[in-house]
Design brief:
Elements: H1 2-24, H2 30-58, H3 63-87
Helix pairs in contact: 1-2, 1-3
């Protein structure tokens, strides 16, 4: 279950990195920003898929525990994001 939470944390870190990079690139056109967003989504998808494959294949973790940890980690990130929006 811990590995699933770590995968969710990696996903959140990649999302934050992409968002930070996008805010710094003020000279981009809307099309370039959209392309950068798509690239970020593909990078996150591929890395998360590889991490799931590593957890299931190499570490021989149980699928349900891995998925439960990932879902729990994602829910924590969503709840934290909602609370941050409420404070603004």
């Amino acid at each position: 279950m811990w590995f699933g939470g770590a995968v969710a944390a990696v996903n959140a870190l990649l999302l934050a990195r992409c968002a930070q990079r996008d805010t710094r690139a003020t000279e981009r056109t809307p099309q370039q920003s959209l392309a950068a967003a798509y690239i970020c989504v593909v990078q996150r998808f591929v890395l998360i898929a590889l991490l799931f494959a590593f957890g299931l294949g190499v570490l021989k973790l149980q699928a349900l525990a891995l998925l439960a940890g990932f879902i729990a980690g994602q829910l924590v990130m969503v709840i934290m994001g909602i609370k941050q929006l409420e404070h603004k």
